[in-house]
Amino acid sequence: VHLVQSTAEVGKPGATLRISCQASGYTFIDHYIHWVKQAPGKGLEWMGLVDPEDGQQIFAEKFRDTVTMTADTSTDTAYLDLNSLTSDDTAVFFCATGTLQHNLLDHWGQGTLVTVSS
Amino acid sequence: SYGVTQPPSVSVAPGQTARIPCEKNRIETAGVHWYQQRPGQAPVLVVYDESDRPSGIPDRFSGSNSGDTATLIITGVAAGDEADYYCQVWDSNTDQPVFGGGTKLTVL
């Protein structure tokens, strides 16, 4: 199982920025893709998940109105859109999946650093 | 408070045993999982369901559970074990994962 994320991005306040996560080594539609945020010097914060099989999104309440999660089954790639960027979005974002069990994250992408700066 | 709580830091001498607790506060869960995160790297699952190990994780890593507190146990601690460790549970009420705040393990 391998999750490869897009490289570091810089975005301007108010803009939208997209991060990608390409999956390989397993059946993409069989397992959720989760997104986890880590602000500088802070802990792990779960943002939400997308079910690649049907596109259903489940959000942590804090992120419901600011992010969109999608999955493209033709390329086995998941996407996280960060909408209306603010300085609070400066962080590393990880995608992850749970193949052992649905309630854990046993494979992680390498992380994508997003910097919001005007 | 609601969720899971970890101490910010734990220190241990080389060769000794580190114990990192994770206290569940008014949260209904099934299973506690532990992740190791070295600086600049992605987290790695080291223990799941309180005491099981994924393949490739050395048996120095184990866990226990007593009442509302799960504990990650690392025996024969070495400098390479210095990292942040996070517990994670699945909240049965919201059907979502919840992470603890993380514990920085320092090897003296």
Describe this protein's structure.
The complex is a heterodimer of chains A (118) and B (108). With 118 residues, chain A is mostly beta strands. Chain A has no helices and 11 strands. Helix content of chain A is 0%, strand content 47%. In chain A, strands 2, 4, 5, 6, 9, 10 and 11 form a 7-stranded mixed beta sheet that branches. A 4-stranded antiparallel beta sheet of chain A has the order 1-3-8-7, with no helix packed on it. Chain A is globular and about 40 Å long. With 108 residues, chain B is mainly β. The chains are: A mainly beta (118), B mainly beta (108). The interface between A and B is medium-sized, with 20 and 24 residues.
In short:
Chain A has 118 residues and is mainly β.
The string of secondary-structure elements of chain B, in order, is EEEEEEEEEE
Count of alpha/pi helices of chain B? 0
Count of alpha and pi helical runs of chain A: 0
Q: Report the order of strands and helices of chain A.
A: EEEEEEEEEEE
Taken as a percent bin, the fraction of beta residues of chain B is over 45%
Helix/strand-derived category of chain B reads: mainly beta
Per DSSP E runs of 2 or more residues, the count of β-strands of chain A stands at: 11
Mean pLDDT of chain B: 95
Helix content of chain A: under 10%
Note the overall shape of chain B: globular
Low-confidence stretches of chain B are none
User: What is the structural class of chain A?
Assistant: mainly beta
Helicity range of the residues of chain B? Answer: under 10%
**Biggest chain-to-chain interface with counts:** A-B, 20 and 24 residues
Largest sheet of chain B: 6 strands, mixed
Sheet with most strands of chain A = 7 strands, mixed
